[in-house]
Amino acid sequence: MLEPAASPKDRTPDFTVEAFLEMLVAERGVSRNTLDAYRRDLADAAGWLSGRKRVLSGADSDDLRGYLDGLERAGMAPRTAARRLSALRQYYRFLYSDGHRTDDPTTVLDAPRQGRPLPKILSETEVDALLDTARDMDGPEGLRLVCLLEILYATGLRVSELVGLPFAAVARDPRVLLVRGKGDKERMVPLTDASMAAIADYKPVRGVFMTGRSSPFLFPSRSAEGHLTRRRFGQLLDEVALEAGIDRKRVSPHVLRHAFATHLLDHGADLRSVQQMLGHADISTTQIYTHVLTERLRALVETHHPLAHPGAQR
């Protein structure tokens, strides 16, 4: 239970930060990764303020503006600085609404200007090359990797959702996955014939990766989490990209998620359906993929249209 409201000067930064983080878990159901990101962002701001004899819970708008200016001078990317400001906004909004402060110092702060970078994607041919290369691998490792890639490309899951899939997710209706995503929200995602076949091929060798007699995960491992880690999957993806002759810097689980969404839209899927399959809370997040298509069409016209080149005549 929170203590009675008091002056910000009477409170330590740790108390208010922990109270804020507890609220995120209890009321918003944020994931462990999201919680850790908030903790790091607020700790960075608290450290900067501490060097100036200020505490996070008692900072004013000038203090915070100085912190953000320092991030810009240090060369921090505008997107990262904007995320730091977002964490601070939510923290001070919590302090204000809970009676720990009588004001919100972030209301007068401007967000860092940032462009809208388009997501990196792979072509359908490149995705096929990754899958073909994985299929050429022998043994249980190869069957697992094909299964991972087929599910990822068929569903656009976040990597944390993919590696942490419970076995029960594929033990019921083989045509769909029941996924528990951000905010502990569930969504149903249809599977392709290729991904269903890959799951069926992998199931008989799944026991090879178990440490005991059973595991609740589709992709069990000897890791502390009990399932394949995101880092290990990233390493496997690096290896198969290298073998397929694709630059490893262009390949990641998130890039395959982008490819899933973009290729669906390429083939006529509607934006709302793609939003639901990706698990985006706001359709504006999904709309970035329409910009990818626009850029690709523009590049196509500039490359191949007979009047697109300098000196071309009608």
Rg over C-alpha atoms, rounded to the nearest angstrom: 24 Å
List the uncertain runs: 1-13, 292-310
How many β strands by DSSP?
2
By helix and strand content, what is the structural category? mainly alpha
The name of the CATH architecture of the largest domain is: Orthogonal Bundle
Characterize the biggest β-sheet: 2 strands, antiparallel
How far apart are the termini? 76 Å
Amount of beta strand: under 5%
Q: Kindly report the average pLDDT value.
A: 80
Question: Keyphrases for this structure?
Answer:
single chain; 314 residues; mainly alpha; hpI Integrase, Chain A; two-stranded antiparallel sheet
How would you describe the overall organization of this protein?
- The protein is mainly α and 314 residues long.
- The protein folds into 2 domains: 8-97; 124-302, Orthogonal Bundle (hpI Integrase, Chain A), CATH 1.10.443.10.
- Helices cover 55% and strands 3% of the residues.
- It has 14 helices and 2 strands.
- The protein has helices spanning 13-28, 32-50, 61-73, 78-97, 124-135, 139-155, 159-163, 168-171, 193-202, 230-244, 253-266, 271-278, 283-286, 288-304; strands at residues 176-180, 186-190.
- The chain has a two-stranded antiparallel ribbon with strand order 1-2.
- The protein starts with 12 loop residues before the first helix and ends in a 10-residue tail after the last helix.
- 29% of the residues are buried.
- Residues 117-302 form the Tyr recombinase domain.
In short:
The protein has 314 residues and is mainly alpha-helical.
Mind sketching the topology for me?
Elements: H1 13-28, H2 32-50, H3 61-73, H4 78-97, H5 124-135, H6 139-155, H7 159-163, H8 168-171, E1 176-180, E2 186-190, H9 193-202, H10 230-244, H11 253-266, H12 271-278, H13 283-286, H14 288-304
Antiparallel strand pairs: 1-2
GO molecular function, one term: tyrosine-based site-specific recombinase activity
InterPro entries: CB, DNA_brk_join_enz, Integrase-like_cat_sf, Integrase_catalytic, Integrase_recombinase_N, Integrase_SAM-like_N, Recomb_XerD, Tyrosine_recombinase_XerC/XerD
Active site: 158, 182, 254, 257, 280, 289
